[in-house]
Amino acid sequence: MAYRARTTCTSKNFGIGFSSSIKASLALILIISLFITVDAFAAPAPPAPSSDDDLVKLFEQWRAFEHPVVKNNVPDYSAKAMAAKYLGQSR
């Protein structure tokens, strides 16, 4: 019976070891991928707060656009009034 030396399996035995430049490149790719992933899931910035003047301006623009039917000195937004307005009928 012949004696066989015991060998351990390492990456050097199979010639698949990575050089330090390849390891550095893989680490850099991993870090960049991490930053891209974190940036993709970051919450968007909230909109700038509006002032009261913006709200008043919006209200004035809406009133210039929308002219409701007035009944007893009150705007009538009932379904019947809106349907009549949609069909072009006046009351």
In short:
By secondary structure, the chain is mainly α. It is 52% helix and 7% strand.
Q: What are its keywords?
A:
single chain; 91 residues; mainly alpha; 2 domains; two-stranded antiparallel ribbon; 4 helices; rod-shaped
Write up this protein.
With 91 residues, the chain is mainly alpha-helical. The chain folds into two domains: 11-40; 52-86, no CATH class. The chain is built from four helices and two strands; from the N terminus they run H-H-H-E-E-H. It has helices at 11-14, 20-40, 52-65, 79-86, and strands spanning 69-71, 74-76. The longest helix has 21 residues, at 20-40.
List the SSEs and their pairings.
Blueprint: H1 11-14, H2 20-40, H3 52-65, E1 69-71, E2 74-76, H4 79-86
Antiparallel strand pairs: 1-2
Are there runs of 5+ residues with pLDDT below 50, and where?
none
For the sheet with most strands, the description reads: 2 strands, antiparallel
| Overall domain count | 2
Beta content comes to 5-15%
Radius of gyration: 37 Å
Query: What count of helical segments does DSSP give?
Result: 4
Succession of helices and strands: HHHEEH
Shape: rod-shaped
- Strand arrangement in the largest pleated sheet: 1-2
Span between N and C termini?
A: 114 Å
Quaternary status: single chain
Decide which structural class fits the backbone: mainly alpha
Share in helix: 40-55%
Mean pLDDT: 78
Number of strands: 2
